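Input chain follows. Return structure tokens only.
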Amino acid sequence: MSTTTPGPSQELGAFLRAHRELLKPADVGLTATPRRRTPGLRREEVASLSGVGLAWYTWLEQGRVTASRQVLTSVARALRLDAAGLRHAMRLAGYHEPVTPDGAGGGLAETVRPVLDSWPASPAVLLDRHFDLLAWNAAWSALWGSPEAVPADRRNLMWLMVADPRLRTVLHDWEPLAMNIFQHFRAQAGPALADPRTGELYERLAEDAPELSHWWGCHSVAELTARSVTVEPPGGAPTALSLSSFHPVDDPSALVLLFTPLTEADRERMTELCRRPLRSVPRDTGDRRAG
């Protein structure tokens, strides 16, 4: 828990405003009148539902005041935020849980790498709280290409999902998973201005995937959900994998992603892929345009 008093946050205000405008009066038990022009809820309605004054809530959306955890929880409840939304609001307000100090990722990677290697036919990767890749197994490199071929400042799962042409070619229907990963990152990320690596990542995404600028400016957050995905590596057949994730006990802010073959046939295809010599696949890390 942070020991300093958080300051006003314009990012928090924008996040709350975006969710207020998405809600309908009926969502919170109110009746809309025919002459209603305000998109979503009015500020006075959120203030009343939260038990705070209208002027104070207006200032909160404008980034002019701070909110306690208790009051922010009441506002989040009024806005019908889920657990990911509440967590994101708390972080934007400056209420951060302890995280592993910078530079400690190497020790975590050495601890988790044997676990990743124990899944020879299941691509697995260890991510830090910014979704930077700390460790991966041979199956991950066989399917997606070796992360070592990517510059260190772009060796990040979000960057790979949207700007790496190999991954977007191998993964069928990549957009739902890419969006969910970005929403999960937003749910746990603090304000970009207060976190240099978060700010740097947004800059790299804007540079290398400008056609997705509407993603980087959105305020949606979500948990990363388990799902099945289909991959088709070069020269291989479509293969179904089940995505799951878990947090290492040594660092709950880190995340392990595991792609497990769904059927025995899928496992055989992944095993065959992992037996092939790993070839270096060039990655285009320059300016990329859709089309």
